[in-house]
Amino acid sequence: MQDEKIYKVALSLTSGVGDVITRNLISYCGSAQAVFKSPRGKLLKIPGIGPKTADSLLGKNALLLAEEQCRLAEQRGVRLLFYTDSDYPRRLKSIADAPVLLYCQGNADLNAAKSVGIVGTRKATPYGKEITETMVADLRRYASVMVVSGLAYGIDITAHRAALKNGVPTVGVMASGIDIVYPASHKNTAHQMQELGGLVTEYPFATKPDAPHFPARNRIIAALSDVVIVVEAARKGGALITADIANGYNRDVMAVPGNIGQSHSEGCNFLIKDHKAHIYTGIDSLEALMNWQEGNPTAGKPQPEWPDASLTEEEKQVVLLLRHQKEMLLDDLSWQSQIALGKLASLLLTLELRGVVKALPGKRFTLA
Protein backbone atom coordinates (compact mmCIF):
# COMPACT_ATOMS: atom_id res chain seq x y z
CA MET A 1 0.00 0.00 0.00
CA GLN A 2 1.15 3.54 -0.66
CA ASP A 3 2.09 5.33 2.54
CA GLU A 4 0.61 8.65 1.40
CA LYS A 5 -2.76 6.98 0.75
CA ILE A 6 -2.81 5.62 4.30
CA TYR A 7 -2.01 9.07 5.69
CA LYS A 8 -4.79 10.62 3.58
CA VAL A 9 -7.33 8.12 4.91
CA ALA A 10 -5.99 8.62 8.44
CA LEU A 11 -6.71 12.35 8.26
CA SER A 12 -10.37 11.60 7.50
CA LEU A 13 -10.50 9.26 10.52
CA THR A 14 -8.75 11.48 13.06
CA SER A 15 -10.87 12.66 15.97
CA GLY A 16 -11.50 16.41 15.84
CA VAL A 17 -10.40 16.74 12.21
CA GLY A 18 -13.20 17.52 9.77
CA ASP A 19 -13.18 18.46 6.11
CA VAL A 20 -12.28 22.13 6.62
CA ILE A 21 -9.50 21.44 9.13
CA THR A 22 -8.10 18.73 6.86
CA ARG A 23 -7.76 21.24 4.03
CA ASN A 24 -6.09 23.71 6.40
CA LEU A 25 -3.63 21.04 7.51
CA ILE A 26 -2.74 20.11 3.93
CA SER A 27 -2.37 23.78 2.98
CA TYR A 28 0.05 24.46 5.83
CA CYS A 29 1.98 21.17 5.80
CA GLY A 30 1.97 20.30 2.11
CA SER A 31 0.87 16.65 2.30
CA ALA A 32 -1.03 14.23 4.50
CA GLN A 33 2.13 12.46 5.54
CA ALA A 34 3.75 15.77 6.47
CA VAL A 35 0.80 16.52 8.78
CA PHE A 36 1.45 13.38 10.85
CA LYS A 37 5.20 14.01 10.82
CA SER A 38 4.88 17.61 12.05
CA PRO A 39 5.93 18.46 15.61
CA ARG A 40 3.24 19.37 18.11
CA GLY A 41 4.30 23.01 18.25
CA LYS A 42 3.86 23.47 14.51
CA LEU A 43 0.45 21.81 14.57
CA LEU A 44 -0.77 24.11 17.33
CA LYS A 45 0.03 27.16 15.16
CA ILE A 46 -2.39 26.00 12.45
CA PRO A 47 -5.88 27.62 12.67
CA GLY A 48 -8.44 25.24 14.14
CA ILE A 49 -5.90 22.93 15.78
CA GLY A 50 -6.11 22.74 19.58
CA PRO A 51 -4.23 20.51 22.03
CA LYS A 52 -6.72 17.61 21.75
CA THR A 53 -6.63 17.57 17.96
CA ALA A 54 -2.84 17.83 17.94
CA ASP A 55 -2.64 14.87 20.31
CA SER A 56 -4.98 12.87 18.04
CA LEU A 57 -2.72 13.60 15.06
CA LEU A 58 0.37 12.56 16.98
CA GLY A 59 -1.22 9.30 18.12
CA LYS A 60 -1.28 6.05 16.15
CA ASN A 61 -4.98 5.17 16.36
CA ALA A 62 -6.06 6.88 13.13
CA LEU A 63 -3.17 5.37 11.19
CA LEU A 64 -4.07 1.88 12.37
CA LEU A 65 -7.71 2.42 11.38
CA ALA A 66 -6.59 3.79 8.02
CA GLU A 67 -4.46 0.73 7.29
CA GLU A 68 -7.52 -1.46 7.84
CA GLN A 69 -9.69 0.74 5.60
CA CYS A 70 -7.06 0.61 2.84
CA ARG A 71 -6.80 -3.17 3.16
CA LEU A 72 -10.58 -3.56 2.86
CA ALA A 73 -10.69 -1.20 -0.10
CA GLU A 74 -8.01 -3.18 -1.90
CA GLN A 75 -9.79 -6.48 -1.20
CA ARG A 76 -13.18 -5.23 -2.41
CA GLY A 77 -12.14 -3.15 -5.38
CA VAL A 78 -13.06 0.17 -3.82
CA ARG A 79 -11.31 3.33 -4.99
CA LEU A 80 -10.28 5.87 -2.37
CA LEU A 81 -10.37 9.39 -3.80
CA PHE A 82 -8.78 12.16 -1.74
CA TYR A 83 -9.68 15.74 -2.65
CA THR A 84 -6.13 16.40 -3.90
CA ASP A 85 -6.23 13.43 -6.31
CA SER A 86 -6.50 14.21 -10.02
CA ASP A 87 -9.55 11.96 -10.49
CA TYR A 88 -11.50 13.40 -7.56
CA PRO A 89 -14.82 14.70 -8.99
CA ARG A 90 -14.28 18.21 -10.33
CA ARG A 91 -17.85 19.23 -9.45
CA LEU A 92 -17.21 18.53 -5.77
CA LYS A 93 -14.06 20.64 -5.78
CA SER A 94 -16.16 23.76 -6.28
CA ILE A 95 -17.98 23.49 -2.93
CA ALA A 96 -16.57 24.56 0.42
CA ASP A 97 -17.87 21.59 2.42
CA ALA A 98 -16.86 18.85 -0.01
CA PRO A 99 -15.85 15.55 1.63
CA VAL A 100 -12.08 15.19 1.67
CA LEU A 101 -12.29 11.45 0.99
CA LEU A 102 -14.66 9.38 -1.12
CA TYR A 103 -15.09 5.61 -1.19
CA CYS A 104 -16.12 4.64 -4.74
CA GLN A 105 -17.10 1.27 -6.18
CA GLY A 106 -17.93 0.55 -9.81
CA ASN A 107 -16.81 2.02 -13.11
CA ALA A 108 -18.65 5.35 -13.05
CA ASP A 109 -17.02 8.37 -14.65
CA LEU A 110 -17.64 10.87 -11.87
CA ASN A 111 -16.55 13.61 -14.25
CA ALA A 112 -19.09 12.80 -16.96
CA ALA A 113 -19.81 15.74 -19.27
CA LYS A 114 -23.39 15.96 -18.01
CA SER A 115 -24.81 14.99 -14.64
CA VAL A 116 -28.48 14.93 -13.63
CA GLY A 117 -29.57 14.47 -10.02
CA ILE A 118 -33.05 12.97 -9.70
CA VAL A 119 -34.70 12.97 -6.27
CA GLY A 120 -38.14 12.76 -4.76
CA THR A 121 -40.45 11.22 -2.21
CA ARG A 122 -40.05 7.70 -0.88
CA LYS A 123 -43.82 7.29 -1.39
CA ALA A 124 -43.80 7.73 -5.14
CA THR A 125 -47.07 7.51 -7.06
CA PRO A 126 -47.43 5.59 -10.33
CA TYR A 127 -47.41 8.98 -12.09
CA GLY A 128 -44.13 9.97 -10.41
CA LYS A 129 -42.51 6.69 -11.35
CA GLU A 130 -43.69 7.01 -14.95
CA ILE A 131 -42.33 10.56 -15.24
CA THR A 132 -39.00 9.41 -13.79
CA GLU A 133 -38.73 6.47 -16.18
CA THR A 134 -39.51 8.66 -19.19
CA MET A 135 -37.09 11.33 -18.02
CA VAL A 136 -34.22 8.86 -17.70
CA ALA A 137 -35.02 7.18 -21.01
CA ASP A 138 -34.83 10.58 -22.70
CA LEU A 139 -31.31 11.11 -21.29
CA ARG A 140 -30.03 8.37 -23.61
CA ARG A 141 -29.65 11.00 -26.33
CA TYR A 142 -26.55 12.42 -24.63
CA ALA A 143 -23.13 10.94 -25.33
CA SER A 144 -21.76 11.40 -21.81
CA VAL A 145 -24.27 11.66 -18.98
CA MET A 146 -24.82 10.18 -15.53
CA VAL A 147 -27.87 9.99 -13.28
CA VAL A 148 -27.22 10.67 -9.59
CA SER A 149 -29.56 9.75 -6.74
CA GLY A 150 -29.61 8.37 -3.22
CA LEU A 151 -30.67 4.68 -3.48
CA ALA A 152 -33.76 5.41 -1.35
CA TYR A 153 -37.25 4.01 -1.83
CA GLY A 154 -39.55 5.69 -4.32
CA ILE A 155 -38.22 8.15 -6.88
CA ASP A 156 -34.53 7.45 -6.13
CA ILE A 157 -34.57 3.73 -6.84
CA THR A 158 -36.91 4.24 -9.78
CA ALA A 159 -34.32 6.58 -11.34
CA HIS A 160 -31.49 4.10 -10.76
CA ARG A 161 -33.43 1.16 -12.21
CA ALA A 162 -34.60 3.19 -15.20
CA ALA A 163 -30.99 4.16 -15.88
CA LEU A 164 -29.90 0.51 -15.81
CA LYS A 165 -32.76 -0.43 -18.11
CA ASN A 166 -31.82 2.27 -20.60
CA GLY A 167 -28.04 1.86 -20.46
CA VAL A 168 -27.47 5.22 -18.76
CA PRO A 169 -24.64 5.26 -16.15
CA THR A 170 -26.03 5.89 -12.68
CA VAL A 171 -24.37 6.73 -9.35
CA GLY A 172 -25.87 6.05 -5.93
CA VAL A 173 -24.69 8.28 -3.09
CA MET A 174 -24.89 6.38 0.20
CA ALA A 175 -25.48 7.48 3.80
CA SER A 176 -23.52 4.49 5.10
CA GLY A 177 -20.28 2.61 4.49
CA ILE A 178 -19.98 1.28 0.97
CA ASP A 179 -20.35 -2.28 2.28
CA ILE A 180 -23.77 -1.56 3.84
CA VAL A 181 -26.52 -1.00 1.27
CA TYR A 182 -29.55 0.74 2.76
CA PRO A 183 -32.30 -0.21 2.36
CA ALA A 184 -31.14 -3.83 2.13
CA SER A 185 -33.86 -4.62 -0.42
CA HIS A 186 -31.90 -2.53 -2.95
CA LYS A 187 -28.76 -4.67 -2.77
CA ASN A 188 -29.34 -6.31 -6.15
CA THR A 189 -29.83 -2.95 -7.85
CA ALA A 190 -26.74 -1.55 -6.13
CA HIS A 191 -24.74 -4.54 -7.39
CA GLN A 192 -25.98 -4.02 -10.97
CA MET A 193 -25.11 -0.34 -10.76
CA GLN A 194 -21.45 -1.19 -10.32
CA GLU A 195 -21.45 -2.55 -13.87
CA LEU A 196 -22.93 0.65 -15.30
CA GLY A 197 -22.14 3.42 -12.86
CA GLY A 198 -21.32 2.90 -9.22
CA LEU A 199 -21.67 3.71 -5.55
CA VAL A 200 -20.15 6.64 -3.67
CA THR A 201 -19.92 7.46 0.03
CA GLU A 202 -17.82 9.57 2.37
CA TYR A 203 -18.21 7.07 5.20
CA PRO A 204 -15.72 4.31 6.12
CA PHE A 205 -16.45 0.61 5.85
CA ALA A 206 -18.93 -0.76 8.42
CA THR A 207 -20.57 2.65 9.01
CA LYS A 208 -24.29 2.13 9.57
CA PRO A 209 -26.83 4.61 8.18
CA ASP A 210 -27.63 7.24 10.79
CA ALA A 211 -30.09 10.15 10.67
CA PRO A 212 -27.45 12.94 10.31
CA HIS A 213 -25.83 11.05 7.43
CA PHE A 214 -28.80 11.56 5.10
CA PRO A 215 -28.73 15.38 4.77
CA ALA A 216 -24.93 15.11 4.49
CA ARG A 217 -25.45 12.56 1.71
CA ASN A 218 -27.84 14.98 -0.01
CA ARG A 219 -25.16 17.65 -0.32
CA ILE A 220 -23.03 15.21 -2.36
CA ILE A 221 -25.97 14.43 -4.64
CA ALA A 222 -26.48 18.16 -5.18
CA ALA A 223 -22.79 18.88 -5.74
CA LEU A 224 -22.26 16.01 -8.18
CA SER A 225 -25.14 17.26 -10.35
CA ASP A 226 -25.27 19.99 -12.96
CA VAL A 227 -29.02 20.09 -12.43
CA VAL A 228 -31.21 18.54 -9.71
CA ILE A 229 -34.73 17.51 -10.74
CA VAL A 230 -37.34 16.98 -8.02
CA VAL A 231 -40.06 14.68 -9.33
CA GLU A 232 -42.44 14.35 -6.37
CA ALA A 233 -41.94 15.70 -2.87
CA ALA A 234 -43.83 16.64 0.27
CA ARG A 235 -43.50 20.15 1.69
CA LYS A 236 -40.77 18.90 4.02
CA GLY A 237 -38.25 16.13 3.44
CA GLY A 238 -34.97 15.08 1.93
CA ALA A 239 -35.82 16.07 -1.64
CA LEU A 240 -36.42 19.70 -0.69
CA ILE A 241 -33.26 19.70 1.42
CA THR A 242 -31.34 18.54 -1.65
CA ALA A 243 -32.97 21.26 -3.75
CA ASP A 244 -32.07 23.95 -1.21
CA ILE A 245 -28.48 22.73 -1.07
CA ALA A 246 -28.29 22.65 -4.87
CA ASN A 247 -29.48 26.27 -5.02
CA GLY A 248 -26.83 27.17 -2.47
CA TYR A 249 -24.18 25.51 -4.62
CA ASN A 250 -25.30 27.48 -7.67
CA ARG A 251 -26.66 24.36 -9.35
CA ASP A 252 -29.77 24.51 -11.49
CA VAL A 253 -32.94 23.04 -9.94
CA MET A 254 -36.06 21.82 -11.74
CA ALA A 255 -39.32 20.44 -10.37
CA VAL A 256 -42.14 18.46 -11.92
CA PRO A 257 -45.48 20.23 -11.25
CA GLY A 258 -48.22 18.20 -9.59
CA ASN A 259 -51.88 18.35 -8.67
CA ILE A 260 -52.88 21.04 -6.19
CA GLY A 261 -53.87 19.58 -2.83
CA GLN A 262 -51.86 16.37 -3.16
CA SER A 263 -49.22 16.01 -0.43
CA HIS A 264 -46.71 14.44 -2.81
CA SER A 265 -46.96 17.51 -5.07
CA GLU A 266 -46.71 20.22 -2.41
CA GLY A 267 -42.92 20.33 -2.39
CA CYS A 268 -42.54 20.61 -6.17
CA ASN A 269 -45.27 23.21 -6.50
CA PHE A 270 -43.74 25.23 -3.67
CA LEU A 271 -40.30 25.21 -5.34
CA ILE A 272 -41.81 26.45 -8.60
CA LYS A 273 -44.06 29.05 -6.93
CA ASP A 274 -41.18 30.53 -4.91
CA HIS A 275 -38.85 30.57 -7.94
CA LYS A 276 -36.54 28.03 -6.32
CA ALA A 277 -36.91 25.67 -9.26
CA HIS A 278 -37.58 25.87 -12.97
CA ILE A 279 -40.57 23.90 -14.18
CA TYR A 280 -39.83 20.53 -15.76
CA THR A 281 -42.30 19.58 -18.49
CA GLY A 282 -40.12 17.19 -20.46
CA ILE A 283 -36.63 16.76 -21.87
CA ASP A 284 -37.05 19.90 -24.02
CA SER A 285 -37.37 22.05 -20.90
CA LEU A 286 -34.16 20.53 -19.53
CA GLU A 287 -32.29 21.16 -22.77
CA ALA A 288 -33.52 24.76 -22.93
CA LEU A 289 -32.44 25.49 -19.36
CA MET A 290 -29.04 23.80 -19.58
CA ASN A 291 -28.32 24.68 -23.20
CA TRP A 292 -27.52 21.02 -23.81
CA GLN A 293 -27.37 19.69 -27.32
CA GLU A 294 -28.19 16.13 -28.26
CA GLY A 295 -25.22 13.80 -28.63
CA ASN A 296 -22.57 16.45 -27.91
CA PRO A 297 -20.73 15.75 -24.65
CA THR A 298 -19.03 19.13 -24.67
CA ALA A 299 -22.18 21.17 -25.17
CA GLY A 300 -23.53 22.99 -22.15
CA LYS A 301 -22.91 26.23 -20.37
CA PRO A 302 -20.13 28.28 -22.00
CA GLN A 303 -16.70 27.46 -20.63
CA PRO A 304 -14.54 30.37 -19.43
CA GLU A 305 -11.82 31.55 -21.77
CA TRP A 306 -8.23 31.21 -20.58
CA PRO A 307 -6.76 34.35 -19.05
CA ASP A 308 -3.80 36.30 -20.41
CA ALA A 309 -1.21 33.92 -21.90
CA SER A 310 1.55 35.81 -20.04
CA LEU A 311 0.36 34.36 -16.72
CA THR A 312 1.93 31.22 -15.26
CA GLU A 313 -0.16 28.05 -15.05
CA GLU A 314 -0.77 28.59 -11.31
CA GLU A 315 -1.74 32.23 -11.90
CA LYS A 316 -4.18 31.15 -14.63
CA GLN A 317 -5.69 28.63 -12.23
CA VAL A 318 -6.30 31.32 -9.60
CA VAL A 319 -7.78 33.75 -12.14
CA LEU A 320 -10.16 31.09 -13.47
CA LEU A 321 -11.34 30.23 -9.96
CA LEU A 322 -12.01 33.91 -9.21
CA ARG A 323 -13.74 34.38 -12.56
CA HIS A 324 -16.06 31.47 -11.75
CA GLN A 325 -16.82 32.35 -8.11
CA LYS A 326 -16.45 36.17 -8.21
CA GLU A 327 -14.73 36.38 -4.82
CA MET A 328 -13.10 33.81 -2.57
CA LEU A 329 -11.48 33.42 0.82
CA LEU A 330 -7.73 32.81 0.84
CA ASP A 331 -8.17 29.37 2.43
CA ASP A 332 -10.78 28.34 -0.16
CA LEU A 333 -8.52 29.50 -2.98
CA SER A 334 -5.71 27.43 -1.51
CA TRP A 335 -7.57 24.13 -1.29
CA GLN A 336 -9.34 24.48 -4.64
CA SER A 337 -6.15 25.43 -6.47
CA GLN A 338 -3.96 23.02 -4.46
CA ILE A 339 -1.42 25.83 -3.96
CA ALA A 340 0.11 26.05 -0.46
CA LEU A 341 -0.98 29.11 1.51
CA GLY A 342 2.47 30.70 1.69
CA LYS A 343 3.07 30.37 -2.03
CA LEU A 344 -0.50 31.47 -2.83
CA ALA A 345 -0.17 34.65 -0.73
CA SER A 346 2.95 35.61 -2.69
CA LEU A 347 1.26 34.77 -6.00
CA LEU A 348 -1.80 36.89 -5.12
CA LEU A 349 0.41 39.82 -4.16
CA THR A 350 2.11 39.61 -7.56
CA LEU A 351 -1.26 39.51 -9.32
CA GLU A 352 -2.50 42.43 -7.22
CA LEU A 353 0.54 44.55 -8.13
CA ARG A 354 -0.09 43.74 -11.80
CA GLY A 355 -3.70 44.87 -11.46
CA VAL A 356 -5.19 41.41 -12.08
CA VAL A 357 -6.78 40.77 -8.67
CA LYS A 358 -7.98 42.95 -5.81
CA ALA A 359 -7.70 42.17 -2.09
CA LEU A 360 -10.87 42.62 -0.01
CA PRO A 361 -11.34 42.77 3.78
CA GLY A 362 -11.30 39.43 5.61
CA LYS A 363 -8.66 37.77 3.39
CA ARG A 364 -11.02 37.68 0.40
CA PHE A 365 -9.95 38.23 -3.17
CA THR A 366 -11.69 39.11 -6.43
CA LEU A 367 -10.68 40.01 -9.98
CA ALA A 368 -9.76 43.67 -10.40
Automatic annotation (TrEMBL):
Source superkingdom: Bacteria
InterPro entries: DprA (IPR003488), DprA_WH (IPR041614), DrpA_SLOG (IPR057666), RuvA_2-like (IPR010994), WH-like_DNA-bd_sf (IPR036388)
Gene3D superfamilies according to UniProt: 3.40.50.450, Winged helix-like DNA-binding domain superfamily/Winged helix DNA-binding domain
Residue ranges of domain DprA winged helix in the record: 304-363
Record family assignment: Belongs to the DprA/Smf family.
GO process annotations (BP): DNA-mediated transformation
Residue span(s) of domain Smf/DprA SLOG: 80-286
Protein species of origin: uncultured Cytophagales bacterium
SUPFAM superfamilies listed in its UniProt record: MCP/YpsA-like (SSF102405), RuvA domain 2-like (SSF47781)
Protein name: Rossmann fold nucleotide-binding protein Smf possibly involved in DNA uptake
